[in-house]
Design brief:
The protein contains 10 helices and 12 strands. It has about 300 residues and is an alpha/beta fold.
């Protein structure tokens, strides 16, 4: 299969720029521009409107891009199955995950993966859950690792790990003495009602940790009276260490954080409150053997 034409058009639609698309495709800008002009002449209809420096798909262009993405997804599955049939050790893995998770996950997992599969090319997109899911459905990614889904019915999902939400407060906070142990958990559990009068350092509403934090507030039956909003979760915890308020994070993140001042973490929410982390791929899609091996590595790393 040679779907170079489809790859070019999909790249143009993704970047809305000949320059950026050419950079991704490793071809010159004039070459890509000539290709697009000739393609539109051959089809007898414009695929893109030129709006300033942006390329915006026309109705015909949107139809082309949608079909091209499906064709490229089929090609990718074909290549995966063919590689498995021939040798099972060469191919491409395009992974989507959160920026914060890549810090502690990628160095170890990718290094170990390369030892077994040196001929597999791995690329990574560090982005939000919503964006990585859409790019997966568009055929731009092969696998995503996330704790939040928006179109789950279009995905095959494999659970990897049950994460936990933790609250961060200074070690000398009076509430620390009232925390209690939960069997099988690393951190003590703390009732958020004890912190109801504190300032809460929260993330933006669209961030997944905020969604789970709000669920913990609901369980505790409290509504924050004073809030400070900041997206950076590490900064929020350091602010908590300084005594500025109560911050929230994930247990899997804080294991790898270093802070200038000490801080204590406590489980919050109901006793079995978990944040599932899963990998997902397009529903019914084929997973080459090397991607299955990568998933097993993720499971080992987390558990």
């Amino acid at each position: 299969m040679d779907l170079r034409e489809q790859e070019y058009v999909v790249a143009l639609a993704r970047h809305q720029s000949i320059t950026k698309a050419a950079e991704e495709l490793y071809i010159s800008q004039p070459t890509l521009s000539i290709f697009l002009n000739r393609l539109e002449e051959r089809m007898g209809v414009p695929l893109f409107d030129r709006v300033g420096k942006r390329l915006v798909p026309t109705c015909a262009g949107a139809l082309y891009v949608r079909s091209a993405r499906e064709m490229l997804a089929i090609q990718n599955e074909f290549r995966g199955e063919l590689n498995d049939m021939i040798q099972g050790s060469a191919g491409r893995l395009r992974l989507g995950l959160h920026l914060r998770r890549s810090r502690y996950l990628l160095p170890k997992v990718l290094t170990e993966f390369e030892r077994s599969y040196p001929q597999v090319e791995v690329t990574v997109a560090e982005t939000s859950s919503r964006d990585m899911e859409q790019r997966l459905l568009d055929g731009d990614l092969d696998l995503i690792l996330t704790n939040r889904f928006f179109q789950r019915d279009k995905l095959d999902v494999i659970p990897i790990y049950n994460d936990h939400l933790v609250a961060a407060i200074p070690p000398d906070h009076p509430a620390c003495a009232q925390a209690r142990e939960l069997p099988g958990h690393r951190y003590l559990w703390l009732d958020l009602k004890l912190l109801a009068e504190e300032r809460f350092i929260l993330q933006a509403p669209e961030q997944s940790v905020r969604i789970f934090t709000d669920a913990a507030f609901t369980y505790a039956g409290i509504k924050p009276r004073r809030c400070f909003i900041i997206e950076n979760m590490e900064t929020a915890v350091q602010m908590a260490a300084e005594g500025y308020g109560v911050a929230f994070n994930y247990e899997s993140y804080v294991r790898y954080f270093d802070y200038e001042k000490p801080v204590r973490f406590f489980l919050v929410g109901f006793a079995d409150f978990t944040v599932p982390i899963s990998v997902a791929f397009r529903k019914g899609g084929y997973l080459p053997e090397f991607i299955q091996a990568f998933i097993r590595l993720l499971e080992t790393h987390f558990n």
